[in-house]
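S.,

Sequence below, as promised.
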Amino acid sequence: MTEYSSIKEILEKTGTYTGLTVGISMQPLLHAQKDNIIVVRPEERLKKYDVALYVTSYGKYIMHRVIEVCDDHYVIMGDNLLKKEYVTDDMICGKLIGFYKNGKHYVDCENSKLYKFYSKLIVAIIPIKPALFFVRRCVTYPFRKTKRLFKKLFGKDK
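The prediction came back faster than expected:
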């Protein structure tokens, strides 16, 4: 069995990487440690709505959606984030082509009409995302407070 030292190296040698996700930035599409992603080395420049895997200058791998394609860079944002990032072609090491939701249901990012609708919707709502996040925080506030109270009183989640 061949040992690889990084996802980028796997993509360069084999062209495909499969693994579990980490983090919350792509929720509700991808959930940490539940969804198995399939990433390929891109053959051409990415397009708007593609989900890019890129590596930062300090070696961290991040998977976010392309919201704008420029001549010399991409504007990228996580589906569950408000901050835009600017990524150059040399930082891009992969493109999401599909994933297994909860390890069971396969979603084809290239051909699924529902996925394509979701991608366009998530990019279209970017201007109102701050308001949506504020409403979500207001609605979930009582639940978070109650959970903390139970944790304090009983020492565990209820």
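The longest strand covers residues 92-101.

Coffee later?
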